[in-house]
Design brief:
By secondary structure, the chain is mainly α. The chain is 78% helix and 0% strand.
Length: 616
């Protein structure tokens, strides 16, 4: 502060007359009496604030400023008082008054920076407030003696303004002075994450754990960084250790369950999710993560039984709409897998009421209507969504799908041809048109579209896979196999291609040992995939190994109750092993399912035969 005690000491030494004389030499300066009164008012203001009387403290500081109007420190002190009292407008006014007297006053810049930072936070990261906050805090920095709180705020602001490199520079500076500053370490790790430097982020989180070993959050963040850095085993080790030493840490168990899901370990995910539910019996995240794990296992009925009561409780407790929407989407997905399209539609329609403009839910609802054969309803959903997004590729594909379902293949082709003209840089636009051409029997056109697409996207395996699928549906099996082999040459672990090729061989009754080997490799990658289980069971069925065929076909049938092909395969097996009553139930389910890819007359014939055998 400019009003220093030394002023009073000098005044005392020279006497009042001498100080007045000195003042008279500099016109406009406060008198000695005013300086003394200003200082006393300043000290009184601090005492009043300490006593909790903010209003009186502010009045005392303003009195000091009136007595010594050119002192920036008095205004800066008043700005700090208002900031601490959560009066941001008054704090800004006082700080700006300080800067009028001294444009470099660090305290005034600090207060303005903190006020604008708080305002940016309350406004969701307003760009103007962020910029102002950063500018003022930069001018308040003192590299000689860095203020950790100021540097931490500045680092956070740089992260919020999408400038992680500058954030790292600031945080490195404060960590040189305080290497164990855990909050700064956590922010530094986030800056590395923002730059995609996951290994560096993991290393910093490990430093934060050493500095604050009780911080479970840092261990969870470390596991996520390790996973992104391509070290899933180490991530699993970190979380397993966390829950071993802190068995009541629900957040740790939740992270463990989520990680097990990402690693394709549904059993571990289920166990961890159930522990979350034990620790948080009224919580939502435990049942939600459990439902995802059950879905990965194909246990869709249990998934529904888990989510139903939770959804009801969430509605009663007025849980945030986005959380309810997630529950409704999960429920809908489970109902789709079980072939209950009406229930799926009901849940998605309820979700859409909560978030009317959500493109993902609009698309899911339209697809559910299509699966249920409700084409008018599907087209209505798509048309409403297209009012806001007339050129959205996903909606154009759904529009074409609805037209195709009505048998209007030429109109559907026109839609997708137009979509491809506007979305040539998106591989899925090429794939969608090729599929439509294939469905319309225009195989050569489909092959041409995919051949051109492969030239444009030489590293996109989906295009080559789709080429194989188009050729297989056209009966050009040798060419199809060549395409599938090309995909596997590029990626031997492509589970979808392994399964498709294996199933194609099984359907033809050719090289069944190789067929089984290919499908088993797919199941090693995705062990609970119902389609892959059906393929394996069907290959064993073709080998007349009915005992081996039954377990995977039953699992597939339980998972995919609305899939007519899967139910038909299971029915064929049950008929072969003379379980006619069960075969009748399954074939009836096939007729009630999606009816896609099956000969309905043939199923009815087999169903009639099974019923006749039961009647004997």
């Amino acid at each position: 502060m400019r009003i220093l005690l030394c002023c009073l000491v000098v005044a005392s030494a020279l006497g009042p007359g001498s100080l007045v004389h000195a003042q008279s030499q500099e016109a406009g300066r406060p008198s000695a009496e005013d300086l003394t009164a200003a200082y006393l008012a300043f000290i009184t203001g601090r005492s009043l604030e300490a006593a909790g009387d903010v209003e009186a403290a502010a009045a005392s500081h303003r009195r000091a400023a009136a007595l010594d109007p050119s002192s920036p420190d008095i205004w800066a002190e008043l700005a700090g008082l208002y900031a601490r009292a959560n009066q941001p407008e008054e704090a800004v006014e006082a700080a700006e008054a300080a800067l009028e007297q001294d444009p470099e006053n660090p305290e005034a810049h600090r207060i303005l920076g903190l006020v604008y930072a708080a305002r940016a936070g309350s406004r969701g990261g307003d760009a103007e407030d962020l910029s102002r906050a950063i500018a003022h805090l930069e001018r308040a920095r003192n590299p000689v003696s860095p203020d950790p709180a100021l540097y931490l705020t500045l680092g956070r602001l740089y992260l919020g303004s999408q400038n992680p490199t500058q954030a790292r520079e600031i945080l490195d500076e404060v960590l040189e002075a305080e290497p164990q500053f855990t909050e700064a370490l956590a922010l530094l790790a986030q800056a590395y994450e923002a730059e995609g430097q996951w290994a560096d982020a993991a290393a910093v989180y490990e430093r934060a754990i050493l500095a604050g070993p009780r911080r479970a959050r840092y261990r969870r963040e470390l596991a996520a960084a390790l996973l992104n850095a391509g070290q899933p085993d180490r991530a699993l080790e970190v979380l397993s250790e966390l829950v071993r030493f802190r068995p009541d840490d629900a957040g740790g168990w939740f992270s463990l369950s989520n990680l097990e899901l990402q690693l394709g370990n549904p059993d571990g995910a289920v166990a961890a999710a159930r522990r979350v539910m034990e620790l948080e019996p009224d919580g939502l995240r435990g049942p939600y993560i459990l439902s995802r794990a059950l879905g990965l296992q194909g246990r869709y009925r249990e998934m529904i039984d888990t989510l139903g009561p939770v959804l009801e409780r969430a509605r009663e407790e007025n849980v945030a709409p986005n959380q309810i929407v997630s529950l409704l989407q999960s429920l809908s997905g489970a109902h789709v897998q079980l072939g209950d399209h009406d229930a799926a539609i009901e849940n998605l329609a309820a979700a859409l009421e909560l978030v009317p403009s959500d493109l993902g839910i609009q698309a899911q609802l339209a697809q559910a209507y299509l699966s249920a054969g409700q084409f008018d309803a599907a087209e209505d959903v798509v048309a409403r969504a297209q009012r806001e997004r007339p050129d959205n590729l996903a909606l154009l594909r759904l529009e074409a799908q609805a037209l195709s379902a009505r048998g209007e293949l030429d109109e559907a082709a026109t839609v997708l041809e137009g979509a491809l003209e506007r979305h040539r840089t998106e591989p899925i636009a090429h794939v969608a048109l090729a599929n439509l051409y294939s469905e319309a029997g225009r195989v050569d056109d489909a092959v041409q579209v995919l051949t051109v697409a492969e030239t444009q996207f030489p590293d996109n395996a989906l295009i080559v896979f789709q080429l194989g699928a188009v050729l297989e549906r056209a009966g050009r099996n040798v060419e199809a196999e060549v395409a599938f082999r090309r995909v596997l040459d590029q990626n031997p672990e492509d589970a979808q291609t392994l399964n498709y090729l294996g199933y194609m061989l099984a359907e033809r009754g050719e090289r069944l040992d190789e067929s089984i080997s290919l499908i088993q490799r797919a199941l090693e990658i995705d062990p609970n995939n119902g389609s892959y289980l059906d393929s394996l069971g069907w290959a064993y069925f073709k080998q007349d190994q009915f005992e081996l065929a039954e377990p995977p076909l039953r699992r597939a049938g339980d998972q995919l109750q609305g899939n007519s092909v899967v139910q038909d395969h299971l029915g064929d097996l049950l008929y072969k092993i003379e379980r006619y009553a069960e075969a009748v139930v399954v074939w009836e389910r096939a007729l009630a399912g999606d009816r896609d890819g099956v000969d309905l007359l043939e199923i009815e014939r087999k169903l009639s035969d099974a019923r006749a055998r039961l009647a004997r």
